[in-house]
Design brief:
This protein is an alpha+beta fold. It has 4 domains: 1-90 and 131-247, Beta Barrel (AttH-like fold); 250-383, AttH-like fold (Beta Barrel), CATH 2.40.370.10; 397-450 and 473-533, no CATH class; 534-745, Farnesyl Diphosphate Synthase (Orthogonal Bundle), CATH 1.10.600.10. The chain is 38% helix and 28% strand. It is built from 20 helices and 26 strands. The strands form 3 sheets. Strands 1, 2, 3, 4, 5, 6, 7, 8, 9, 10, 11, 12, 13 and 14 form a 14-stranded mixed beta sheet that branches. Strands 15, 16, 17, 18, 19, 20, 21, 22, 23 and 24 form a 10-stranded antiparallel beta sheet that branches. Strands 25-26 form a two-stranded antiparallel sheet. A hairpin with a 2-residue loop joins strand 23 and strand 24 (366-377). It is elongated, with a radius of gyration of 30 Å.
Length: 745
């Protein structure tokens, strides 16, 4: 197959020509990374990628028009920091809408709707940022200036990189001086792109690295460093990387590894995979010796393990990778020096992982070590919001495990019973007995899994106001313990026999132990109200919100236990009106909405939110919690996704739910009397249950409930929307509101 005339010919690559933008290419990027030590012995790594893609033609001149973007990040493993930034083209909102309309990118329909809602305003969700200034690409020499982020080459052949982060005091001014000639990747430089198209790919595997880095504490000079530069371009003029170009609807992800070994050699390996099947669609490993000579092998394995889960996107990322090339005797493992090197860039895909790794292994039996960069893009483990909340649930269990494991140590029991300051309270306490009587009844219910959105609420509301939820990840267990405690006690009070698909805790452990363990859950959660940067004032405020939710929950349970049966004869006579609905909604609000709102406010408090933001997220989750229970009442009559409950179970139990309350205000007296007679009988006769459901449908009560839930969520969102910046957490919360309303689909 012939390739464009402006691609490199056989022989050495002329960097004076091929570092420049290629007119034949609709996709092109320039990439650098580097590992360095500062004058104060800080060991850091950095990468930056400058992208240019065709976005169309000028309608008057016919000239090609390009979109530009930059992604870059600075890794500080010892400090536990990963500062990353993504800046995108001014046409990114329109381009994002077009991608969504083509069905590309995020697969969940609700997330696409939420994303599009931001894009139609001409904005992109943070952490992506639209270029505030102009973009300049010189066609005569390598000189890229993307709104002040620059990459250029001087007359002596050195590469310069200037980076500054808009949100934090982080940046770099670096110079890369090549020590080896350009090396072709792929088959004589040709590789396959994400659409199956031909791309040309060369790299400079070793450069001297000098300059200075800007950190939150000030500017530091580099004492030593080593850099890497590569350049890739391709596709044919006029085409784009749209889904329509992809063969058989493939979506391609990739793993790329670039290792600089301490013995002067470099190893680069990439593997492109079909995101749906996990099968390889192209791979190559290239070893460059100390003189710049290249050897390549298509047969190798690149396998990741030691999975780390993000607590922002809840995606899974392997953080240890083994590259094994049997034919070359290469067996090297690259391990992340910092797990959290996740790069969130909503406009492309929710996130990818790219960061610093330490490499060690053997080549031909000889030990080798070095530093590496690893990029893991695509192959995301979460396809939709159901998958997202399943992933949250797995992290909730891990969080509970840390606080109340199945086999706790003496120290862990001490922290649950008392504190490190008062170990005497453990005198005479038998750890095994405590585990059997306190922890096991709780874990009996926790381990079956539940609706993890309550746990997500606090973390999401920390991020949505500009905080960092990673500082409070231990909070994931707190809402679950609060909720499970109420479930265990409620089941005793309601004489329930089934909870989360198994026998209730009191059937397994007895009522006395179940009540005690359920109540203890409320106090276990208190142990988690900590954080490295929490002020005394905020901690006091968190305690107030925490106990506010517990007071409300118990008040709601008292009203629920007493019920409305005694008032129903009067309702049958009068129709009830708004009074009956308000009584039903009071229980829903106190038992579900207030705890959700309190957790949301807690997250916003530690996230540094304003008073308006704190109340805004609280109102939103209060409305979502109330809508959640209203939709539960609706789905109990219309059927749950996956048949989680029997249709009409509430009627069989004689419950006065919101649809029944609304029907009482809509029906004639004779129909009201018949309806209450059927409900009060608590009959499991399915024909009678179906007749009640039909009556509720016919009078419009069920539709009215569904509409009320939608109105609650939408009204609360309209209050919250202008209070917080458009961001990934905001997109997630918007989609979550719809998820609650539409979870039966």
């Amino acid at each position: 197959m012939s390739h464009p005339a402006d691609w490199p010919a056989a022989g050495a690559i002329d960097l004076g020509i091929h570092d420049l933008p290629h007119a034949s290419s609709s996709t092109e990027w320039w990439y650098v990374n580097g590992h360095f030590t500062t004058a104060t012995e800080r060991k850091l790594s950095i990468f930056a990628a400058f992208f240019r893609v065709i976005k169309g033609r000028d309608p008057v001149t016919g000239e090609l028009l390009y979109a530009h973007s930059v992604t870059w990040a600075l890794s500080d493993p010892a400090g536990g920091h990963y500062w990353h930034e993504s800046r995108v083209d001014k046409d990114a909102p329109a381009m994002g809408i077009a991608r969504i309309d083509r069905g590309e990118g995020v697969r969940d329909a609700r997330l696409r709707r939420a994303m599009k809602e931001v894009l139609v305003k001409g904005k992109v969700p943070y952490p992506d940022q639209i270029f505030g200034g102009d973009v300049y690409v010189d066609k005569r020499q390598l000189d890229l200036d993307f709104d002040g982020l620059r990459f250029w080459k001087d007359d002596a052949g050195a590469y310069h990189l200037h980076l500054r982060n808009n949100h934090v005091a982080v940046g770099a001014d670096l110079v890369l001086v090549p020590r080896k000639p350009a090396v072709r990747h792929g088959q004589d430089g040709v590789v396959k792109g994400v659409s199956g198209e031909d791309m040309f790919y060369y790299f400079l595997p070793r450069c001297d690295l000098a300059g200075e880095v800007l950190l939150p504490g000030g500017v530091e000079a580099l004492s030593q460093g080593s850099g890497w530069y590569d350049h890739e371009f391709g596709l044919h003029e006029g085409k784009t990387t749209s889904m329509g170009d992809r063969k058989n609807g493939q979506e391609i992800g990739w793993n790329w590894l670039g290792i600089q070994l301490d013995d002067g050699r470099e190893l680069s390996a990439y593997r492109m995979v079909d995101e749906h099947t996990g099968e390889s669609v192209g791979q190559l490993a290239v070893l460059v010796d100390s003189d710049g000579n290249r050897q390549a092998w298509p047969d190798f394995t690149l396998i990741g393990d030691q999975v780390w889960t993000s607590t922002r996107t809840f995606a899974d990322y392997p953080t240890r990778w083994r590259v094994h090339v049997p034919q070359a005797g290469i067996d090297i493992v690259a391990t992340a020096t910092l797990n959290d090197q996740e790069f969130i860039t909503v406009i492309s895909k929710p996130a990818f992982w790219e960061g610093r790794c330490a490499a060690q292994g053997t080549i031909d039996g000889a030990a080798v070590t070095g530093l590496a960069y690893l990029e893991h893009s695509g192959q995301l483990t979460i396809a939709d919001l159901d998958g997202f909340f399943s992933a949250v649930g797995r992290q909730v269990l891990k969080s509970v495990d840390k606080l109340a494991p199945h086999e706790p140590s003496w120290e862990q029991v001490r922290d649950l019973v008392a504190s490190p300051q008062r170990p005497q309270y453990m005198q005479g306490v038998d750890v095994d007995q405590f585990t059997r009587t306190m922890i096991k009844p709780v874990r009996e219910i926790v381990d079956r899994g539940g609706k993890s959105w309550r746990s997500y609420a606090a973390l999401a509301c920390c991020d949505i106001v500009g905080g960092d939820s990673r500082l409070y990840v231990q909070w994931l267990a707190m809402p679950e313990l609060m909720h499970v405690g109420s479930l265990i006690v409620d089941d005793v009070q309601d004489k329930s026999t089934i909870r989360r698909g198994g026998p209730t805790a009191h059937l397994v452990y007895g009522e006395a132990l179940a009540i005690n363990a359920g109540t203890a859950c409320y106090f276990m959660g208190q142990k988690l109200l900590t954080g490295r940067h929490m002020s005394a004032a905020n901690k006091l405020r968190l305690y107030d919100l925490y106990f506010e939710s517990l007071r409300a929950g118990h008040a709601g349970q008292a009203l629920d236990l007493d019920g409305l049966d005694a008032q129903m004869p009067a309702v049958v006579q009068s129709g009830g009106g708004d009074w009956l609905e308000e009584r039903v909604l009071a229980v829903h609000r106190l038992k579900t909405a207030v705890p959700a709102a309190s957790l949301a406010r807690m997250g916003a408090v530690v996230g540094g939110g304003t008073e308006a933001q704190i109340e805004g997220v609280g109102l939103f989750f209060e409305s979502v919690g109330l809508a959640f229970q209203i939709i539960d009442d609706v789905l109990n009559l219309r059927g749950f996704k996956g048949d989680l409950k029997a249709r009409g179970e509430d009627i069989a139990h004689g419950k006065v739910t919101l649809p029944v309350a609304k029907a009482m205000a809509r029906l004639e007296q004779s129909d009201r009397a018949w309806l209450w007679q059927c409900v009060a009988q608590k009959s499991d006769d399915q024909s009678q249950i179906d007749a009640v459901i039909a009556k509720l449908e016919a009078c419009g009560a069920i539709d009215a409930c569904a509409q009320q839930a939608r109105d609650l969520v939408e009204s609360a969102w309209q209050t919250l929307d202008p209070l917080v910046e458009d961001s990934l957490p905001k997109v997630m919360l918007r989609a979550f509101g719809w998820y609650v309303l539409e979870r039966h689909y």
